[in-house]
Amino acid sequence: MSRRLDSPFGKDAPSIEAATDACAYCPNLCLHACPVTTATGRTTEAPWALMTLTRWVATGDCAASPDVRRALGACTACGACTEACIHHVPVAATLQRARDLLHRRLGPDAQSRTPAIPAEAVGAPIPAGASGIPLWLSGDMVAFTSIARAAASRWQGRSRLLFDDHADLVCVRDLYPMIDAAVNASLVLTSLDAMSSSPPIPAGVVGYLPPCTATARLAMARTASHGSYVASLESWLGYAPALLRWDETGTCCGAAEPFHTQEPAAARAMAERVLQNARDRGIDVLVVLSASCATHLADVATATQSNTRPIRVFWPGGPHQTEALG
Ligand code: SF4
Ligand code: SF4
User: Fold this and answer.
1) Phi/psi of residue 191, each to 5°?
2) Model confidence at 313, in pLDDT bands (50, 70, 90)?
3) What is the pTM of this model?
4) What class is the 198-325 domain?
5) What is the 28 CA–ligand 1 centroid distance (Å)?
6) Which atom of ligand 2 is nearest to 212's Cα?
7) Ligand 2 pocket, residue 80 CB under 6 Å
8) What integer pLDDT is reported at residue 21 of this predicted model?
9) Region(s) of the chain under CATH 3.40.50
10) Fewest CB within a 10 Å sphere: which of 64, 79, 116, 286?
11) Residue located nearest, by CA, to atom 5 of ligand 2
């Protein structure tokens, strides 16, 4: 009898097992790409380790449990491993699917610390997380679908939606249509909107951290393209900022929910690594276009300001502008 018959993943086990085939024979070649592993030094959270655990569940060699679900949550879904894998394994998508299947198998997580979804005031920018993206990333598709459809219904009739966080914008653009919750409005980032109204240009060497959420985590295998954002920044600044990127998807600072709430120490270490990378490049001001990333990085910059070279985190979000001295 095939062990798959006993797999907690049920009929989805073969596809999950197939997605992890290459990893089973790979010497951990994407280890260097994972921002969680490089920041914490814990190889138990490397893409290879999470894919191996996923494979064991798929083959029935490991039981589904809250501990397994939590272990697979040590991933921001940034997609850096997907970009780095020479075998083109869709790691981030496979891990998200595995979390989804575990949620379906185990039911709601009583220990879940997925943050509450904020609701925006009418006409105000949509706050980070309000699209339900933390629930999608956690794999709780039932809750995500409910939140997303309610939000889409609330936003019907609006011609323009302003988002504080890029992940929410991409969620509404790419994921909502997949659950019949399409929104017929132009989708705009608060920070880009603010730049067009010419907020003060920060003094010093300006660097730019692209959102790792751009397309990698939601659009799976597509290569991220930040060209239009960089062009907007250049137009605002009048010159090209220093680009802070380690790969095509950018560098994940650990702000993504629910990862940020569930793995606070790792999230802080990831932010410290991003900030140190910026300092090493001589950057004085780090421009970040997503609210949650800017807030997280600013918090860490402030907390570490006594023993490092100061660096400012700047979110050109108009009245919601975040600026911190670290
Ligand atoms: S994702 Fe690719 S590089 Fe990473 S362990 Fe799997 S096969 Fe190897
Ligand atoms: S998606 Fe990002 S955080 Fe998750 S395993 Fe891959 S590189 Fe690590």
Assistant:
1) -65, -40
2) very high
3) 0.89
4) alpha beta
5) 6
6) 2
7) yes
8) 96
9) 198-325
10) 116
11) 47
Q: Is 316's pLDDT higher than 90?
A: no
Output the average pLDDT for the chain: 85
Tokens, residue 167 = 């992940």
Q: How far is CA 209 from CA 199, 288, 325, in A?
A: 19, 6, 17
Please tell me the predicted confidence (pLDDT) of residue 28: 92
- Is the pLDDT higher at 169 or at 5? 169
CB 125 within 8 A of CB 190: yes
Name the H helices within the chain.
13-19, 21-24, 35-40, 47-59, 66-72, 80-84, 91-106, 133-138, 141-155, 166-170, 190-196, 227-237, 259-262, 264-280, 291-303
33 lines ligand 2 (CB under 6 A): yes
Tell me which fold the domain 3-106 belongs to: Fumarate Reductase Iron-sulfur Protein; Chain B, domain 2 (1.10.1060)
Q: By C-alpha distance, which of 119, 98, 112, 91 is closest to 56? A: 98
Q: What is the pLDDT of residue 267?
A: 96
pLDDT for 268 equals 96
Peptide bond connecting 258 to the previous residue in cis, omega within 30 degrees of 0: yes
Task: Determine the Cα–Cα distance for residues 288 and 166; give it in Å rounded to an integer.
Answer: 10
Kindly list the distances between the CA atom of residue 176 and the CA atoms of 33, 136, 139, 180, 314, in Å, as whole numbers in the listed order.
29, 11, 15, 6, 30
